[in-house]
């Protein structure tokens, strides 16, 4: 834990030092080729601050929010949270070698995690080697999850609880991009450490991929000696948008130990499709993602833990005011709405043939105000219905959420 | 446009009072404590509520290795009746007053297993009974009754000649059982009042047994792991077990709906006229209890907590305690109409969920209930509807 704490403290010290003389600070702007950037570029497509002649740039973002939520008429009252405080450090070792790390403190420091810490070596635009702690490119949200980029206080449930964003692992892989006029093509392929038995043996009472994140040892060794493959291809047209298709799969369980067979080898396979586009006539921004999860659950285990899951979300963001607002020259005021759905357990009961429910849907209308592009103030109303495995009358959850998020 | 923004913000501010989804009507849900608990009792209720409804066991916290369900709430969703998904299978005792055959894996089948283990399989040709999980509401009121009160309805030899017996199930208590002032010792055995065969004496035994047999969770009360047959370290604390018992004792009783509806009043009269109430005793009053909120309360469970011959159609050839294989405890009818809310929108009634409607359940009654069933069959369609509506209102 000490080594995890040291880095944030060190970074704070750097920031504090920089505050003495602001002329030392140099803002490294967001990639100016943003229109050509793809989701796979998200980790580098962030604002950074360079300090004097130091070879490193730093950055980060913070999220703070308030919520008043309730379920079936019962509320826990007013609650203030700081769900995330994230620090980035980037460094160019050579024009073709760069390093970036992302350290996240969640829930006020309750959980500190390395979300990204990888070295990138460029041999050719189509051939880059990445090694370290990488974000597995499953879907788009896992790599493109920074709070300031979104108009909603909560992250999409399907992408953070069904898919386990942020899902990072130690490993190596290749990636590359190819541009042709308005088109961009990108690919990524990684082998990393992966999941473990906890995805079907946890206190959530359902197949729950994020349970594997609790295993801190996954940054030191694989739980079963089997690499997890994650691959993605994506195509972007500057006038149309981007679509990505990704896959993640491998053996998830510990099937043997010390040469002794404990269980059969059991696979996990995840397929995801993501897209984003802007309707040019109305400047309406659409972004969404959908994923399917297939897990080999032992037949003799409980159907409580589903073999199949599916879910996703779509965000519709409509800017309605742009320009000088409240003293900010390029402010944007938007209306937005998120629709999300997750089916934690796709299938039917062996005993009755009836549908296994265990699903939820939510609608989240929102208002957002961006005084500058890197800062967002957002007000959401969340309404959600959640059914248990039997399909009994759903729990109805609703409330308001107000928050702000900004890169710094 | 700025006006539009102000209007939107204004609407949101006015909506604040109504932003939390409306609670369901109090008589439409089974969850919730009885009235009159003091603050320390409320805190204990919450602790038990958490352990019962939210604590999920996994292989890392002691589940199994063989089991039926992963949590209490898996079987008793919303504290109501269960679904065939978590039906229990019991076997091993085929005659009254004989010990269950533990050598073949009795008394309960653990039909699921954590990865890497093999679940129990029912020995071929062995008689068995399937038991749908019951609702758990109002159990504290039933547990507060005295044995003497319950025995006032017993008539094992049908001395009154009404065709209805009412037999107590005397069972051997577990080692940790401590009799209360209202339990009567019958040569070392005690009267059971919980479970489909009334083979469980009190809610501590019910809770300990469910942890052990349903989830494979050992405790200091029941330290033997059902898979290995060996004593292992406790996997649930005494405090948690007792919190769950307290929770079960203090769950409110189901509240009857639409009591003043004329058709439901008519149905209630018919219920009495065709003698359903001879076994499904409507009204009871508790004596003084150690929980003040349970003391001297009149309540309406529609059960006599006694065993009755239900005929060959409901004889599974398996039993518990001193009950005959064809005898079943009169199940409480309170909360009956809310069963679909915990059974996934359908009815799974009778001991094994074989009846998919209240009417079908009535028509499956045999043995001592033959007379009432025949009278039900002879009712006009209008009267049948009234009776069913009354039962749905409970």
UniProtKB/TrEMBL annotation, chain A:
Gene3D superfamilies: Porin. Residues 1-18 form the signal peptide. It comes from the Bacteria. InterPro entries: Porin_dom_sf. SUPFAM superfamilies: Porins. Keywords: Signal. This is Phosphate-selective porin O/P. The lineage of its organism: Bacteria, Pseudomonadati, Bacteroidota, Cytophagia, Cytophagales.
From TrEMBL, chain B:
Residues 1-15 form the signal peptide. The keyword Signal applies. Keywords: Heme, Iron, Metal-binding, Signal. One of its GO terms (molecular function) is metal ion binding. Residues 48-252, 262-394 form the Cytochrome c domain. Gene3D superfamilies: Cytochrome c-like domain. PANTHER family: CYTOCHROME C DOMAIN-CONTAINING PROTEIN, CYTOCHROME C PEROXIDASE-RELATED. This is CxxC motif-containing protein, DUF1111 family.
């Amino acid at each position: 834990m000490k080594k995890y704490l040291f880095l944030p403290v060190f970074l704070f010290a750097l920031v504090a030092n920089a505050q003495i003389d602001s002329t030392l600070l140099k803002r490294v702007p967001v990639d100016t080729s943003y229109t050509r950037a793809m989701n796979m570029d998200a980790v580098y497509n962030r604002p950074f601050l360079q300090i004097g002649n130091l070879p490193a740039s730093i950055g980060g973002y913070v999220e703070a929010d308030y919520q008043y939520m309730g379920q079936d008429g019962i509320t826990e009252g007013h609650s203030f949270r700081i769900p995330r405080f994230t620090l980035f450090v980037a460094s160019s070792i050579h024009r073709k070698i760069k390093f970036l790390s992302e350290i996240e403190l969640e829930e006020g420091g309750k959980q500190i995690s390395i979300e990204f810490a990888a070295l990138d070596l460029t041999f050719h635009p189509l051939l880059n080697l990445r090694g370290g702690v990488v974000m597995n490119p499953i879907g788009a949200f896992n790599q493109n999850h920074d709070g300031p980029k979104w108009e909603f206080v909560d992250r999409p449930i399907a992408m953070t609880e069904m898919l386990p964003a942020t899902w990072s692992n130690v490993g190596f892989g290749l990636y590359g991009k190819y541009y042709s006029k308005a088109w961009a093509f990108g690919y990524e392929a990684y082998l990393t450490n992966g999941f473990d038995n906890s995805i079907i043996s946890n206190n959530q009472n359902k197949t729950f991929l994020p349970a594997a994140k609790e295993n801190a040892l996954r940054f030191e060794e694989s739980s079963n000696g089997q690499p997890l493959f994650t691959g993605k291809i994506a195509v972007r047209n500057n006038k149309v948008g981007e679509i990505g298709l990704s896959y993640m799969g491998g053996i998830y369980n510990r099937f043997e130990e010390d040469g002794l067979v404990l269980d059969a080898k059991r696979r996990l396979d995840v397929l995801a499709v993501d897209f984003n586009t802007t309707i040019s006539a109305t400047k309406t921004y659409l972004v969404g993602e959908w994923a399917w999860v297939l897990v080999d659950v032992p037949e003799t285990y409980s159907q409580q833990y589903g073999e199949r899951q599916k879910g996703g979300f779509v965000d519709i963001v409509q800017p309605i005011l742009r320009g000088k607002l409240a003293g900010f020259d390029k402010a944007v005021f938007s209306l937005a709405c998120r629709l999300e759905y997750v089916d934690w357990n796709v299938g039917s009961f062996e005993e009755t043939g009836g549908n296994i429910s265990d699903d939820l849907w939510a609608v989240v209308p929102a208002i957002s105000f961006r005084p500058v592009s890197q800062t967002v103030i957002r007000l959401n109303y969340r309404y959600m219905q959640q059914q248990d495995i039997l399909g009994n009358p759903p729990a109805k959850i609703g409330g308001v959420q107000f928050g702000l998020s900004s890169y710094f | 446009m700025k006006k539009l923004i102000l209007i939107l913000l204004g609407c949101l501010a006015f909506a604040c009072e109504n932003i939390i989804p409306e609670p369901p009507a109090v008589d439409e849900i089974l969850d919730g404590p009885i009235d009159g608990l003091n603050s320390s009792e409320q805190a204990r209720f919450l602790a038990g509520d958490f352990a019962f409804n939210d604590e999920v066991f996994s292989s890392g916290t002691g589940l199994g290795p063989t089991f039926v369900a992963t949590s209490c709430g898996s079987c008793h969703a919303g504290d109501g009746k269960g679904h065939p998904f978590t039906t229990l299978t019991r076997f091993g005792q085929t005659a009254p007053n004989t010990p269950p055959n533990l050598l073949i894996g009795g008394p309960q089948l653990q039909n699921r297993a954590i990865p890497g283990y093999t679940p129990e399989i029912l020995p071929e040709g062995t008689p068995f009974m399937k038991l749908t999980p019951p609702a758990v509401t109002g159990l504290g009121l039933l547990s507060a009754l005295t044995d003497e009160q319950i025995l006032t309805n017993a008539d094992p030899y049908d001395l009154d000649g009404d065709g209805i017996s009412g037999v107590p199930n005397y069972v051997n208590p577990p080692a940790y059982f401590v009799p209360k002032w209202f339990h009567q010792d019958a040569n070392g055995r005690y009267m059971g009042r919980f479970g489909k065969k009334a083979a469980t004496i009190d809610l501590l035994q019910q809770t300990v047994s469910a942890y052990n047999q349903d989830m494979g969770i050992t405790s200091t009360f029941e330290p033997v792991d059902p898979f290995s047959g060996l004593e292992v370290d406790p996997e649930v604390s005494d405090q948690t077990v007792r919190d769950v018992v307290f929770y079960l004792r203090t769950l409110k009783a189901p509240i009857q709906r639409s009591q003043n509806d004329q058709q439901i009043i008519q149905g209630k009269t018919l219920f009495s006229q065709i003698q359903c109430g001879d076994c499904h005793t409507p009204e009871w009053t508790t004596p003084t209890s150690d929980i003040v909120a349970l003391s001297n309360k009149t309540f309406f469970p529609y059960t006599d907590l006694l065993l009755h011959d239900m005929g060959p159609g409901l004889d599974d050839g398996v039993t518990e305690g001193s009950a005959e294989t064809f005898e079943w405890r009169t199940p409480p009818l309170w909360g009956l109409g809310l069963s679909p809310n915990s059974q996934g929108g359908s009815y799974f009634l009778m001991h094994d969920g074989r009846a998919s409607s209240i009417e079908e359940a009535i028509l499956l009654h045999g043995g001592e209930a033959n007379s009432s069933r025949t009278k039900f069959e002879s009712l006009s369609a209008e009267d049948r509807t009234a009776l069913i509506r009354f039962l749905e209102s409970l």
